[in-house]
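Annual report, structural modelling task.

Input specification for the flavin mononucleotide complex:
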Amino acid sequence: MNCSHGSTITTADNTWKMTWPETVEVAKMADKAGFEVLLPVARWKGYGGTTNFNNRTFETFNWASAVSAITEYSCIFSTAHVPLIHPVAAAKQCATIDHISGGRFALNIVCGWFKNEFEMFGAQWNEHEVRYEYATEWLRFLKKIWTSEKEINFKGRWFNSKSVWSEPKPIQKPMPPVMNAGGSVAGKKFAATQTDMNFVLLKERNMEGGKAQVDNLKMMAKEIDRNIQVWIHVYVVCRETEKEAKKYADYYIVEKGDNAAVNNLLKIFGMQSETLPSDVLNEFRRHFIGGHGGYPLIGTPEQIVDGMNDIIKMGINGILISWVDYKTECQQWIDEIMPLMEQNGQRNSKPSLE
Ligand SMILES: Cc1cc2nc3c(=O)[nH]c(=O)nc-3n(C[C@H](O)[C@H](O)[C@H](O)COP(=O)(O)O)c2cc1C
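The model returned the following structure:
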């Protein structure tokens, strides 16, 4: 919700405009209802088209710090493009937000794939292997800063820093959780070996294929005695009847989809990421317009909860949710879907903070 149009590439009415007053409203609504996580996308430039999708964005560390100050329960993420921020700066920004939130901060690190925005920085553009080698060194340095009680020297392939000092340390010990959203061979290896959570794009939308992908990621971590959570993005259309839900999904995706913007996104994503082969990427056009390549949950509240059972059976540990109209549809999720999920044993109710 830190980006204009959220995750929907459509000219339909009531898409997310992304203003601060509305951010406050939705963040407080979600926090009060017991959402475990609020997470921003790191984006510096829009994708063109009629919507100029994601053209207005709040910077993720500032967003996370302000959202931390107005919430009291949810974990607040920031998302960092590792080539665009120095670990010494990132360590302090993260620690600051961990204090503001009272130990509710987590970090999503991404290596970048949207070349156009990297060109704004004149930043070096590396091939996949090198991107994730860089991220490994970046994270190793960050973790040292978070945990060292004394000044440290750090010398690696990319960083050469002397007498590094950072106080205060994060509140969370040993450190805040770290997530990554890599999908290439190098990205998956990085997530499995270095992070606590991998935020993935499901390549197959069926039980067998989804479960195999999730099992494979968890196995990669198990092989080196680590545990990793796997999270996905879902886009939601919930209506009283299945027919109404499907009709609205077709309306905002097919009738009102911004084809120019999604073409730009798919072209660059296809060339610069190795998450999906190009023929599959085209099949995913509908999911990219519907919710940034996410997994669809479309139907009545009962059907959505059934869909959630499949997600749980695939071994997925967390979902990040997007809607066309954050204000009304997030409220609907809270009123109509969360109680059903609790009744079905899919999640626990929000614990009291007293
Ligand atoms: C669910 C999800 C969320 C992502 N969030 C961001 C983001 O906020 N900013 C960004 O530049 N890339 C983001 N990415 C892109 C990934 O970090 C990664 O670059 C992309 O999936 C391609 O994978 P690869 O780098 O391993 O080829 C996201 C990807 C996924 C699947």
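The mean pLDDT is 95.
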